Amino acid sequence: MCAPKLRVDSKGNKKMTKETWGRVCNELLKTVGKSNYTTWIAPLRMIDMSEGIAAFEAPTKFMRDWVSRNFGEAILRELRNDGHVVERIEFRVPELRPIPANEVSRPAVAAPAPAAPKARAEEDLPGAPLDARFTFDNFVVGKPNELAHAAARRVAEGGPVTFNPLFLYGGVGLGKTHLMHAIAHELQIRRPEARVRYLSAEQFMYRFVQALRERQIMDFKEMFRSVDVLMVDDVQFIAGKDSTQEEFFHTFNALVDQGKQIIISADRAPGEIKDLEERIKSRLQCGLVVDLHPTDYELRLGILQTKTEAYRAQYPGLKMADGVLEFLAHRITTNVRVLEGALTRLFAFASLVGKEITLDLAQECLTDILRASDRKVTIEEIQRKVAEHYNVRLSDMIGPKRVRTIARPRQVAMYLSKQLTTRSLPEIGRRFGGRDHTTIMHGIRKIEELMGSDRQIAEDIDLLRRLLES
Ligand SMILES: Nc1ncnc2c1ncn2[C@@H]1O[C@H](COP(=O)(O)OP(=O)(O)OP(=O)(O)O)[C@@H](O)[C@H]1O
């Protein structure tokens, strides 16, 4: 509300009354437009006008800076037009209420974080704490994640913003959070002055709702619009939550307009997030969208080897027989979190019973994990899921039709049958209507080739694989 307190001007200049300020506000409404007026001018309070200085109070620092930069001239002009002698305008802010630390819930990390390097974000703008273990040094790179890793590295260099946002997506436990924290850690070293804020979409919503409830929405806006790098994890969470989406959209736009870097993660590609507004989907697709593919054997083994090195230091003297890591990498294919959990348990168990880690010990200690990972996908299941996904008849999977709309899904199913089952090519051929193994081979090669050039196919395969393995 534009509520002037002034009644008298010490130099005998024209008095500022409620009416005259009202007139100035009316003029401003015409020149800056309704939306700008409501957002930026109406919350100002005129607190003083003397010695040619008009002083206003803005609810937050962010508003103060914004109004001063964008509307200062207009306000000055309208005050003068109304006959006031004003040399300059000052904008002030009242003391901001500090935000209680308990407003921030901890992110789901596997273990309590040991003292993380302190983010500027945590000092100035309480964000979620970073996990000190999630650094680039601790991130094992393999084919399935090399692109995501390279993109994260690029953003972490802190140079000019080249792609905005960076959108990382992939299935559960494949390293999205790890990469985001790694970016934050790296930025703290390279750009210590940068305000980096990491939080989950759930925390974003929580803070937004709380700000609404406590009528602190301007503080909320200021906090989120004054960062240099904003990272929002698991953005799929805000799908279907209308007002949070709305606020997220405006925050996103405001930051992009200011040339600030945004990094987002989700469990699927932007276009596949159900109940997410179209305008948000399209914004999220504007930058670089990269996926973390399910791990392959080499990556799993690499991760196990790296983590084993760390455990060796923790459990000196504990021996491990050859072949144990290979066995685990082969059998536990679900996700990295499960793989890590298996290794942790194995070391703890072996040290407790004072035995060498052998294959037998691993099988005994990890029975449940191994059984859960043992779920076998059948060719029939694959055919059914693929048919559903592409909206073709199940019978067409094994039938003779050669039109592309049917042949392509069939080849996708062949490819997945080879990837997700232990069946041989002739066996797969038999399940696909008695086709020859060379036809199956051709189908698999075709899909492998397309995955490199056709993003849609690569995304379809990724999604189907996840559906089938879950
Ligand atoms: N390439 C990797 N190298 C080393 N550790 C990894 C790698 N990928 C994942 N991890 C580890 O696996 C665990 C799960 O990773 P993270 O929490 O980043 O997964 P996420 O993709 O964010 O999963 P969610 O979808 O559940 O949020 C973490 O402990 C992380 O350090």
The major sheet is characterized as:
5 strands, parallel
Return the domain count.
Answer: 4
**Uncertain runs:** 1-8, 96-125
Distance between the termini: 55 Å
- Taking all residues together, what is the mean pLDDT? 84
Helix content: 40-55%
The small molecules bound here are: adenosine-5'-triphosphate
The largest beta-sheet arranges its strands as 5-6-7-4-8
Number of strands: 8
Number of helices: 21
Round the Cα radius of gyration to an integer and report it.
29 Å
β-strand percent reads 5-15%
Overall shape: it is elongated
Q: Secondary-structure element sequence?
A: HHEEHEHHEHEHHEHEHEHHHHHHHHHHH
Going by helix content, strand content and strand pairing, the class is alpha/beta
The CATH topology of the largest domain is: Rossmann fold
The CATH class of the largest domain is: Alpha Beta
Name the CATH superfamily assignment of the largest domain: P-loop containing nucleotide triphosphate hydrolases
Q: Any guess at the CATH architecture of the largest domain?
A: 3-Layer(aba) Sandwich
List descriptors.
470 residues; alpha/beta; GMP Synthetase, Chain A, domain 3; Rossmann fold; Helicase, Ruva Protein, domain 3; 4 domains; 3-stranded mixed sheet; 9% strand; binds adenosine-5'-triphosphate; nucleotide-binding; DNA replication origin binding; P-loop_NTPase
